[in-house]
Design a protein that fits this description.
alpha/beta; Amidase signature (AS) enzymes; two-stranded antiparallel sheet; 13 strands; 22 helices
Amino acid sequence: MKRLLLLLLLPALFSCGNNKNSKEEDTAIPDSLKTEEKFKVLDSENISLDSIWAPFESDLAEFSEEKYEAVKPLIFDKNIPEIQEAIKNGELTYEELSLFYLYRIKEFDRENELSLNSVISLNPNLLEEARQKDEELKDSEENHLITGIPVLLKDNINTQNMATTAGAIALEDNQTDDAFIVQQLKENGALILGKANLSEWAYFFCGECPSGYSAIGGQTLNPYGRKIFDTGGSSSGSAVAVAANLAPVAIGSETSGSILSPSSQNSVVGLKPTIGNLSRGGIVPISSYLDTPGPITKSVVDNAILYSAMTGLDPEDALSVEVENTEFNFENTSLEGKRFGAFKQLMEEDSLYKRAVNDLKNAGAEIVEFEAEDIQLEDFLRLLSLDMKNDLPEYFENYGGETGFTSVDDIVKFNMEDSIPRMPYGQALFEGILQETADSTYLASLKSDLSEKGKAYFDAPMQEHNLDGILSINNYHAGFAAVAHYPAITVPMGYDDEGAPKGLTFFAKSSEEDKLYQWAYAYEQASNRRQSPKNYE
């Protein structure tokens, strides 16, 4: 396997020293190449804008630019508690909130000089459901803060009323029931806004292709540098839409870096939870051992709200657990006495990281610089291939619609029938899956070995230096956290000399999401580095 392919998919497998020359860890093609050389395909030919917008035509016609500008100060870059306060005070309705985001999606997302290609489909019942929330508000007492908030879902998460495509033409008619986390969101009062574009098949499909591309959705683009900066993958559309205020919040999914990467590269907050804290039921898989959904938001507070709205024990998910603590109190949050490990090499080479570490010091944290453990995660790709070979058929059988597909082999053959529109960058990783023959005993041994190595990577410095957590950049060490089943959160830490966003990433031990949120919130408040992309204000 070429080293380029490994860096593209799993940058976190390598020590920070091996990543020092990579400006954006998921960039498939060097930034020095021209845009037309980066992208074989830009816009989608598989999305009918007329059909997407038909359910909203009359309502958007009445939602004038004057109305948009009137509600914009109440919504744009506001967090969920602020939006809910405006609704409670009668300054805003859930219907107006939904119309605001529909207006912006229509204005910015497709077929213009600012298009981002971040949204694949929209919930045709959104406005009807928003009006119902407005009616219920009159008689309600205490609701979850997610009530009435439009949530954008990565398009590998099953949802009623919209196909779940994973970005693939093969699944363009994959009509399903709601995934478990979507059921939880709805029970807690959330509105489903639509489906977000993604790196096709969650970036385990085409090998040497740009992140953010799917045959259904086209090429997702970064609002901080359209056609210039990489979007990160695979939850590209989720992060881009939130960054550009096309959605208040979104859901992504991660196997190894797929929430952390796009969140950091689009200057938003992304949580990769402990495996099992959020159900994977009804989500198109790569690996049942590593996959998890997670929230992507503009602020830490919103992230915690969205995370809490998805939790719950799913009896159909073997790793699902009941999360006990989802009430996060951010009052009087302090970093006094907290001890964080900082990679020496990153301190020497990355000025934004060094500044972020100093922000933490100034907020009361203690910082210990350390050398990274010399650990390699051999055969990580084999784990993904072997799991997907087993897990995708199980998805088709238990959660998929009437697609006619039952295996990876079926998809490979389907794509070969019309390769240019279905796989313009090839399907090297799917073809690699078909070559795998290892048995379940080998797979179990591989998972155990990788898990031990992932934990050792973090545990050794944490034990030696009595650390609470470890600090990184973007998704640099996400692979180790993936196999260790350790959670992580990334928070905007600024922009490099070229204007590309970066994130400060915190790692903790399993089921320590409450600690991650406390640390992330304290850093966010102390630094306040996030800025909205200028062309999308």
